[in-house]
Amino acid sequence: MVRGVLFDCGKIRLSGLLAEAPGDSAVVVTHPHPLYGGDMENNVVAAIEKVFAAAGHATLRFNFRGVGQSGGVHDEGRGEQDDLAAAFDFLLGRGKREIWLAGYSFGSWVNALASERLGRPPMILVAPPVALLEFPEGPLPGLKAVAAGQHDQFGPPDRVREAAKAWNPAAPVLLVPGADHFFGGSEDALRRVLETFLSSRKS
User: Is residue 82 classed as helix, strand or coil in its secondary structure?
Assistant: First the structure.
């Protein structure tokens, strides 16, 4: 059952969608760029959420500050890291102890920037726009996988592979055939790639 939730980030109140699950595992799913229409209802965010829910994780997706019913204004990735930390704390407060980060595009950038602060949680980056935004050059020890569209114009697979070597050489780059950055019509292909990866970790 998915239900709307509200949680605070300092003086700002953020809105999200929570799907409960038994156990102590959960995921925070972050959305693409707010200034270009990104929000928690995005097609890719929804696809990621479904994969983690099917794998037994509680899921929380939320709107960054200034988006939808979330207060505040866009802060170019700085305040959005605070938003992510507040979402992470919200799940900790609900008894979750293994909390993943899964971000798409701008959301993947925010997750990467905040990873160290949050204790290096397990993380999947989907379509990191390495040709547009400056990602950390150093290691991201929590990184478990990167998913990239075959024809991604903002995160070309070759550049993503090169960046992933510096982030975590052990993290595979999962190529989504036929997909561009927006995954229109390729949502099922993305789900299959992520499902295969998550199931492989259990075997």
Answer: helix
Residue 77 three-state SS: coil
Local confidence band at 94 (pLDDT 50, 70, 90 cut-offs): very high
Number of domains in the chain: 1
Is the four-CA dihedral 169, 148, 15, 133 of positive or negative sign?
A: positive
pLDDT digits (tens, 9 = 90+) for 44-78: 999 999 999 999 999 999 999 999 999 999 999 99
CATH of the domain at 53: 3.40.50.1820
Q: What is the CA radius of gyration of the chain?
A: 15
Alpha helices (H) in 30-184, listed in sequence order: 43-54, 78-92, 106-114, 157-167
Would you state the structure tokens that stand for residue 80, as one six-digit string? 């959005």
Whether the per-residue pLDDT at 202 is higher than 90: the answer is no
What DSSP character marks residue 64? Answer: P
Q: Structure pTM?
A: 0.98
How many of the other CB atoms lie within 10 Å of CB of 111?
30
